[in-house]
Structure formats: structure tokens, C-alpha cells
């Protein structure tokens, strides 16, 4: 193995390691969420009928929207990366 191929192999390994640590697993529920993920989820809940300003109907409003969002995710085709 010559020096150029060793450098390329080292750079490839470094990129792979950096991407493995930078991207949490999508299936890990304990992984911290990004701001974009939180906004996406909020929009999904609002589309399901959740109103964050409706304090009077709060528990029922949130639980109903949560059921709708969970059902939509279960019905959605799986995404691939």
C-alpha cells in the first residue's frame, strides 16, 4: 500500500467516524432531537388538530392529536436513508 492510498483510507475512515458520531440513530428515542425535528413534530401535531393555545381542553386536545400523529406515522411507508 503506497502513501497516497493510506492517506485516502485514513481520510475515509475519519469521515465515516465523524458521521457516525454526528448522526444519532433514528430509532433511538433517547437521542436528543434537533430543532428541525421538534418543529416538524409540532407542525404534525397542529395538523392533527392540536392547539397549543387551547388551555381549557389541554389534556384531551393533546392526547387526541397524539393518537392521530401516531396513527399517521404507523400508516406511512417507511423511509430509507
Brief sketch in words of this structure:
This protein has 81 residues and is an all-alpha fold.
Could you characterize the architecture of this molecule?
It is a single chain. With 81 residues, the chain is mainly α. The protein has one domain. Helices cover 63% and strands 0% of the residues. The protein contains three helices and no strands. The protein is elongated.
Number of helices: 3
Count of distinct structural domains: 1
Shape descriptor: elongated
Mean pLDDT: 79
Q: What fraction of residues sit in β-strands?
A: under 5%
Helix content percent band? 55-70%
Are there runs of 5+ residues with pLDDT below 50, and where? 17-21
Keywords:
3 helices
